[in-house]
Write a structure and sequence with these properties.
Two copies of one chain form a homodimer. Chain A has 243 residues and is an alpha/beta fold. Chain A has a domain of 170 residues: putative 2-phosphosulfolactate phosphatase (Alpha-Beta Complex). Helix content of chain A is 37%, strand content 19%. In chain A, the strands form three sheets. Chain A has a five-stranded parallel sheet with strand order 7-2-8-1-9, sandwiched between helices. The two termini of chain A are 32 Å apart. The model of chain A has no long low-confidence stretch (mean pLDDT 93).
């Protein structure tokens, strides 16, 4: 029997799913998982997802760079916020980063607590590498949309749909959320940016007069091929390890 | 400023929304809210949504008909399950019904506890009557999909999308779930049945060798115009009151 692929539209729904042992892909397109791919593509050594800004700041003493965002805004006193442009800096090479974001790090922690097999970072920027790796694993897959404050959002659902589309011939699709996500992606893929610009999160960016360019950046395909996977407490770029 | 319309994809997400005072439309297309419309269209007097089969059965002593379904199956000893065909019986005229279903009655109770303004029953069978009434109210609207065991499902999302489509010119749409639902409906509306037959719930029906005709029945437009609204503990057909 085929392995299963399921889409969880927000972390609030994750406890309804059988997570134990499954590979969980964390999706926070605007912007945490996009920025993580960019960081690794630019040579970052490892990333430590932490829950709170206070916890994040503690790692300054251990020569980490510290990145913290809340409500789409970089917190004062931190090296970086959550914009992918901040992670393109060549000075990041070989550095370690402690990272806390509104939705992304929470989804990682929660997957861990529920006994996920492997926890992988997904974004449009690394989609081909991700899909190829998932195909090879032959494991049940949960695509976990980080959403916005536990509500579903368009951009994460669309990315989940893109992955479902790419894998649907090889996996059993017994999940309405996966069907809906794939259908949405299929009909929006030729004009992703226009659709995502109408989404509530993009509107939120606009209201902040910030991060508008981030929307376009985060919808590019395969511009930051990396394969960040949780190993212990850290995200490591396993693509670098196997290359 | 325009009033808001939001879609809640499953009851598990309802606590994230500001429900107080808003009109909440309960959506359980397969099959509770469809059957409720059919019951009222066939002259039922009032319907009492109850939580458990045990509670439901107690109302036999008060001359209620008792309807109970769990996991898509009619429970033994009850007058009816959850199939709309069972509610087309002319013997139901003027009768009272106590009704408990897997997902539908739970969504009603929860909306009440969170302080909803009016709680209205929605299905394709009464969509025009519902939409006209909502337009006249000029209140914020929450479209609450009953889903399946707290997961999102296709048929309820599609119905929510149909209502959003009908109202979007008059309401503010600051909700990605509403955008997604409307988009899905727009692209599936010409072949609703084929799409819904692929959904997990329709597949569940198929596995039970039951209720397959119910899918087609519940996707008909405006064949049971009724406007069931909670008044105190009961659902009443307010269309009958104003006609």
């Amino acid at each position: 029997m085929n392995k299963k692929i399921e889409v969880v539209l927000t972390p609030a729904l994750l406890p309804l799913y059988q997570v134990q042992g499954k590979n969980v892909v964390i999706i926070d397109v605007l912007r945490a998982t996009s920025s993580i791919c960019v960081a690794f593509f630019n040579g970052v050594n490892k990333i430590l997802p932490v829950s709170t800004p206070e916890e994040c700041m503690m790692f300054k003493d251990f020569d980490f760079l510290c990145a913290a965002e809340r409500n789409a805004i970089k917190l004062p006193g931190f090296d970086m916020g959550n914009s992918p442009f901040e992670f393109q800096n060549p000075l990041l090479k070989e550095r370690n980063i402690a990272f806390t974001t509104t939705n992304g790090t929470k989804a990682i922690k929660q997957s861990k607590e529920l006994g996920a097999g492997k926890i992988i970072i997904g974004s449009f920027l690394n989609i081909a590498v991700l899909v190829n790796w998932l195909k090879k694993q032959q494991q049940d897959i949960i695509l976990l949309c980080a959403g916005w404050k536990d509500k579903a959002n368009l951009e994460d659902t669309l990315f989940a749909g893109a992955v479902v589309q790419a894998l649907r011939d090889d996996y059993a699709l017994d999940c309405d959320s996966a069907m809906m996500a794939a259908h949405l992606y299929q009909h929006m893929q030729n004009d992703l940016e226009a659709h995502v610009r109408l989404s509530s999160h993009a509107q939120r960016f606009k209201a902040l007069h910030a991060a508008e360019d981030d929307v376009r950046f985060c919808l590019q395909m395969n511009t930051a091929p990396a394969l960040p996977i949780m190993q212990g407490e850290y995200l490591i770029n396993t693509l670098a390890l196997t290359a």
